[in-house]
Write a structure and sequence with these properties.
Distance between the termini: 25 Å
Helix content: 25-40%
Shape: globular
Number of helices: 4
Largest sheet: 3 strands, antiparallel
Number of strands: 3
Length: about 100
């Protein structure tokens, strides 16, 4: 029987799915391999969502190329943004300690 680990549950509570709007698509093309299009689905840190573009730490927002790659992208976010040696500064400290 497959189960989601406590870590996976914690990680998933820190991520939200969203849709890129015109402004976001226009402002996030620099340094990307593929441009972001309005209406494209992405995942982001729920703690950084209100920050101005460019103010969030590395790895706060991703646009997976397919639904299948959502899991891998979440895993990447955990190592780069949430639980790295420099965890998200917008995330409450009690979550970081978990």
């Amino acid at each position: 029987e497959k189960r989601i680990s406590p870590f996976q549950c914690l990680l998933r509570k820190q991520i939200e799915v969203f849709v890129a709007d015109e402004e976001l698509a226009a402002r996030t093309t620099r340094g990307r391999k593929k441009p972001i299009h309005p209406g494209q689905v992405g995942i982001r840190c729920r703690h950084c969502r209100g920050l101005p573009l460019g103010a969030a730490q590395q790895g706060a927002m991703y646009f997976p190329s397919s639904l299948v790659s959502m899991y891998q992208t979440g895993q990447k976010m955990s190592g780069v943004h949430f639980f790295s040696n420099k965890p998200c500064t917008s995330m409450p400290k009690d979550i970081v300690r978990e």
